[in-house]
Amino acid sequence: MTDLERLALQKREKPRLGIMGGTFDPIHYGHLVAAEMARAKFKLSKVLFIPTGTPPHKHRKDISAGPMRYEMVRRAIEDNEFFEISSLEIEREGPSYTVDTLRILHRTYPEHELYFITGSDALLEIFSWREAEEILRLIQFIGAARPGFDARDFFLKVQEEHPDTQEKIHYLEVPALAISSTDIRSRVQCGEPIRYLLPEAVRLYLEEMKLYVNK
Ligand SMILES: Nc1ncnc2c1ncn2[C@@H]1O[C@H](COP(=O)(O)OP(=O)(O)OP(=O)(O)O)[C@@H](O)[C@H]1O
Ligand SMILES: O=C(O)c1ccc[n+]([C@@H]2O[C@H](COP(=O)([O-])O)[C@@H](O)[C@H]2O)c1
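Above: the input record for the complex with adenosine-5'-triphosphate. Below: its predicted structure, written as tokens.
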């Protein structure tokens, strides 16, 4: 048990677990900044990074193999004592529906409150996720600012159309980083620099494995 968890239990509050789900092909500083700011602001005792096995809403045919995306996440987070990784979705067959993952985490962490961290682009889509209502029963969402995706209209829509879920969806201002995995992949293809967009250990790994070259 971590110090934060012990403190929460002493105060009879539920400790909070952050969940950062993503394709992470590759993981970059946009993901890491969102997770770290959410951890601090929402007093999360830890953040569990869960690379998807088969992302439900992404239809690219050339998504890198799960174990490689897992390894990149593992390398990216190893210096943060509050970050952990889970292979739950990588090991599961079929599309990685969040609701299935949350049911498992709910059983694994019965004493925790669960917070799912997304960027504002993913937040705009959550009502289209499988069993969205059940998801919102199980967890709260933290939507981190992402350049190009304004979440204000989304919150107005939630207020009007899903007022019962309002308190379970939070907006988080973060130093917004215009970094995406798509841009990193296309930079690699074009031979453009990617240094400082992602942790160096991840850059060296994708170079060694020749990821994103000639795709
Ligand atoms: N720069 C960023 N700032 C804030 N959140 C981000 C950022 N990049 C990704 N996220 C969030 O991290 C989660 C996982 O994102 P994902 O792995 O799909 O990365 P991506 O950069 O959006 O990938 P791609 O470009 O391949 O679509 C999503 O909730 C997404 O909104
Ligand atoms: O469960 C769903 O229907 C669902 C639909 C789209 C995305 N998600 C989850 O949202 C997270 C971010 O997804 P992505 O595609 O932006 O990497 C990741 O954990 C996905 O499994 C989940």
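Notes for the reader.
The mean pLDDT is 94.
Residues 29-41 form the longest helix (13 residues).
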